[in-house]
Write a structure and sequence with these properties.
The chain is mainly α and 71 residues long. It is built from three helices and no strands. The chain is elongated and about 45 Å long. This is DUF2768 family protein.
Length: 71
């Protein structure tokens, strides 16, 4: 992930690249919301914890992609 951040930060992204990075970020955030919804409604115990942690990681990556697309 750090290499990806350095690559995107070093290179000036054109408009299409920014669009794709922002779409990836939006997709990751939507996927995180769906996983969290499923975890809260359908699971219990350690499976719920694992799904919640996966959703948090996806949300963080989605936010990073969103921030990269703004720059």
């Amino acid at each position: 992930m750090a290499l990806m951040l350095q690559t995107f930060a070093a290179a000036k992204l054109d408009a299409m690249s920014k669009m794709w990075v922002s779409m990836i970020g939006i997709g990751l955030m939507v996927l995180a919301a769906l996983i969290i919804t499923y975890a809260r409604n359908k699971t219990k115990g350690w499976i719920r914890l694992v799904l919640t942690l996966v959703a948090v990681v996806l949300l963080i990556y989605g936010v990073i992609c969103g921030l990269i697309s703004i720059i």
